[in-house]
Design a protein that fits this description.
heterodimer, A: alpha/beta, Rossmann fold, 2 domains, 34% helix, B: mainly alpha, 9 helices, globular
């Protein structure tokens, strides 16, 4: 973990990438994006397809030259000095495709270390450690092509760690993995980040991965940042507003209409002898209004609960513009 | 020191790839040899017993050998670059702090070392097959071969640059293979313009050493300097053009895309 003067380890200011083509004209893939990442932080980059996540990550990796903007990586201006900037970070961009399939796990790790200028002799202990931590011990001398998809993916991440850079960029690190391997990889990322003090910027479609691994999330859509906040804060924001009521019996059509008229977005589900009502209240006082309406309809309230939203719900609502941060 | 690490790793990488793709390596060498047998014996049948044709046949051996080494060296650059883009590893090379071009230069130069070993063995087999033992004075031939192939590598980088931006350049590569045959066959002392192209002058000097039994010290300083200048021009020029293509690829977000 390193940063200059206690400031952010990654600082992106007004990053813009415009692709121009004769056929399609101008495409603004990343549009005036600014964010900071603190040393040791694990940040998730979320967004729908084509939102600009991968372009942002590739700009940071210097694989894509930004049209304008500034990127400071561990004190180095990566736009002015791309090579010095790239020395500060490692990335997994294509998952299991980022490794040499005819080389063994060990040979891959040695080669990727060498690409960073790290000699084989000086990195043996780290390679042995990574092989053990990533559960590749039995396959250390097997060609990567013979490994399972999950093992290959883990090897690709290990190859990024072997470069010993303070920052790690991971684009869809769990894509195509089954739940078990995904969970295993998430645990490894968390522990490796904590033990080695690495800063991780991770993009994923999988909300569970982001919620599980990241502390903060940056949501990006149409090339622009929609929100940037701690995951806890985003979840809390919805938690205090979302309620679930369980009511005995079925609600009549008239009563359903009254409730729908009074509360925007209310969802009523009838299931046998119980009706479930999901509602979000922008004003806490309206909780009593809803209770009154149900009481007037002679509905016995079984229980009221604050509904816990997951990150996926928060993400979708932010994208729909239902809430702005 | 870090550069030495890169070159060491590149050499090891090449050896491992050749070993792991043993069938591909072997079939490449066998087809180069098979093609040579067809050309050589075909030329002998059609050339018959005309006076002086023996020298031509020896010239064929030298030209073909240079062509074979050129193809091995070029293949390692251009075909692999396309392959790496397809695999997804090109992006990783592009993220090396050494820079993409220096990483590829290390790959190309270490490949020449490895392929030179294969080439020497192949060359001996060719001479044994034809019964024409040429002057293989290592002190004279080795520097000429290395400098000659460096010039060709420059063109390899040019093609590599095209591959990075345009991805599919198979047609251009096929044309290039035919052009290379022309460069090793056409005598630059007869068609002067060929002298200024890569490979031709080096092959011409190699013929003088290997067929005419000359030593490198028998060659004029002017001839040698011209070869060095010619190869340096194409090598440096090729890398320069490659970097321009690489920059364009980074600007257009094409590096690693296939």
């Amino acid at each position: 973990m390193s940063a200059v003067g206690g400031g952010p380890i990654v600082s992106v200011e007004h990053l813009t990438k415009v692709y121009r083509s004769r056929r399609r004209g101008e495409t603004r893939a990343v549009d005036d994006v600014s964010f900071d990442v603190a040393p040791g932080e694990i940040v998730g980059l979320l967004g729908p397809n084509g939102a600009g996540k991968t372009t942002t990550i590739k700009c940071l990796c210097t694989l894509v030259t930004p049209t304008s903007g500034r990127m400071v990586i561990d004190g180095v201006d990566a736009v002015a000095s791309p090579r010095a900037g790239i020395a500060k970070l490692a990335a997994v961009l294509e998952g299991n495709r980022n490794i040499y399939w005819r080389l063994t796990a060990r040979e891959n790790l040695e080669y990727f270390a060498a690409l960073q200028g790290i000699a084989r002799g000086t990195v043996t202990k780290l390679i042995n450690d990574l092989i053990e931590r990533f559960g590749l011990g039995e396959q250390r001398d097997a060609e990567a092509r013979t490994l399972s998809r999950g093992m290959q993916q883990k090897l690709a991440v290990a190859c990024a760690f072997v470069k010993q850079t303070p920052i790690l960029l991971l684009d869809e690190p769990t894509l195509g993995l089954d739940v078990e391997i995904s969970l295993e990889l998430r645990g490894m990322l968390r522990s490796m980040a904590a033990d080695a003090g690495r800063t991780i910027l991770l993009s994923s479609h999988d909300m569970d991965v982001v919620q599980d691994v990241c502390e903060r999330v940056i949501i990006i859509n149409n090339g622009r940042i929609v929100t940037s906040d701690r995951i806890d804060n985003l979840l809390e924001l919805f938690r205090v507003r979302a309620y679930r009521f369980a009511v005995q019996g079925k609600l009549g059509d008239d009563q359903q209409r009254v409730l729908s008229d009074a509360f925007d977005g209310i969802e009523i589900m009838q299931d046998g002898h119980l009706s479930t009502i999901d509602v979000e209240l922008t004003d806490g006082a309206r909780l009593y209004e809803l209770i009154d309406l149900l009481r007037r309809g002679d509905n016995m309230i079984e229980w009221i609960d604050r509904r816990d939203p997951d990150l996926e719900e928060v993400f979708l609502r932010i994208l729909r513009g239902e809430i702005r941060r | 020191m870090k550069t030495a690490v890169l070159y060491g790793a590149s050499l090891r990488w090449r050896m491992l790839e050749l070993r792991r793709y043993a069938f591909d390596t072997l079939s490449g060498v066998v087809s180069i040899y098979g093609f040579f047998v067809v050309i050589f014996f075909g030329a002998r049948i059609f050339g018959g017993d005309r006076p002086g044709f023996g020298d031509t046949l020896e010239g064929v051996v030298v030209s073909y050998a240079v062509w074979a080494l050129t193809m091995l060296a070029l293949g390692s650059l251009t075909f692999e670059l396309t392959q790496e883009a397809q695999q997804g590893t090109l992006e990783q090379l592009g993220m090396s702090p050494f820079g993409l071009a220096p990483v590829l230069v290390a790959r190309a130069l270490t490949s020449i070392v490895v392929y030179f070993g294969i080439w020497v063995a192949l060359f001996v087999v060719m001479m044994a097959t034809t019964g024409r033992w040429l002057n293989v004075d290592v002190v004279s031939t080795l520097p000429l071969v290395v400098v000659t192939v460096l010039g060709v590598l420059g063109l390899g980088f040019l093609l590599g640059g095209l591959a990075v931006v345009f991805k599919r350049i198979q047609q251009a590569l096929q044309v290039w293979q035919i052009l290379v045959i022309g460069l090793v066959v056409v005598p630059p002392d007869e068609v002067v313009v060929v002298k200024y192209l890569p490979l031709a002058w080096g092959t011409h000097l190699l013929r003088r050493v290997m067929v005419d039994d000359a030593s490198i010290f028998d060659l004029s300083a002017g001839d040698l300097l011209f070869l060095v200048a010619n190869s340096a021009f194409y090598f440096v020029g090729g890398i320069f053009v490659f970097k321009r293509f690489e920059r364009a690829a980074r600007e257009r977000g094409l590096l690693g895309h296939y």
